[in-house]
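Take a careful look at the protein record below. Let me know whether the structure tokens fit the sequence:
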Amino acid sequence: MELPPESFQSDLTGRDSQVGTKPMMLMSGFWILVSLGLLYAGAAGLVRGSASLALRLGLTPLVVGLTVVAMGTSMPEVLVSVDAALQNRGDLAVGNVIGSNIFNVGIILGFTALLSPMKVQFQLIKFDAPIMAAVMFVIPLVLWDGVVTRWEGVGLFAGLVAYVLFNVRLARRTASETVTAEYQEGVPAKSGSMALDLGFIILGLGLLAVGARLLTENSVAVARGFGVSEAVIGLTIVAVGTSVPELAASIVAALKKEPDIALGNVVGSNIFNILGILGIASIVRPLEAAQISRFDMWSMVAIGVALVPMLMTGLRLGRREGGVLVAAYCVYVAMLWPK
């Protein structure tokens, strides 16, 4: 029996693969949504248990808010980037950090300012904003050769430890009664027992681990389906998904008229993303990120630097500044995503 021509066979194969790709893409999209829910629930459980445990051990609400709560909301980024590093997907891990930082400033702060203009009261925010901008310059330095080595990761993590210790000491000296009250209200209340605290921590970490693996695997599947690089998916879908806890925390703080928490959450998260997440992930396994472009790195630096004068001049992030930040993020994504 005579077989159909090769071109006809290849057309059939191509059609079959396209038909098969759509259900797979939909399924991957579904699991990404599930993973985001798990990451959000895991971060919320971890923050609740850790904050309660820290209060039980004698830390003040201000210190808990600046350390435990701020880092807890960044745990989705930590788990996703570490999981990506273990799977040798450095572009996804680094893209998650850079994309999260751009999203934090452009969308979270921008949208929060549009919702409720924010006046900066806490001296620490005025101090931390320039530090955040300076830390962002570290990314082009460590990625000049396309790799973040273990020793560079150790240096980044050491910088995080020094920053946290200095931050806590400065906060105790400079925080006003108004700011202290803001943080006291924003920190989860102490639970009934230490066993319950540990239960929330263990459950939160478990949900974060499962959510991170689901998000990593299905994001890679989506990247292949769209024909884009893992770096692009990390800079957009993964970065937005892992930033959901910060988005929720900042919107709630803005609605409660707690601007210092909303601003401090984003500024502190961006510093933690670079020094902590990139540091931890590269210590676990050196990160090769050849697909991360200079455009991505310098876009992050630019939006971080642009935030400093907005906070330092007038000490207020109004609706006009918020609109500029949101527009900047939209332009970045439009230029990043393949046409």
Q: What stands out?
A: The CA atoms of residues 60 and 200 lie 20 Å apart. The chain has a mean pLDDT of 80. Residues 25-336 form a domain with the A middle domain of Talin 1 fold (CATH 1.20.1420.30).
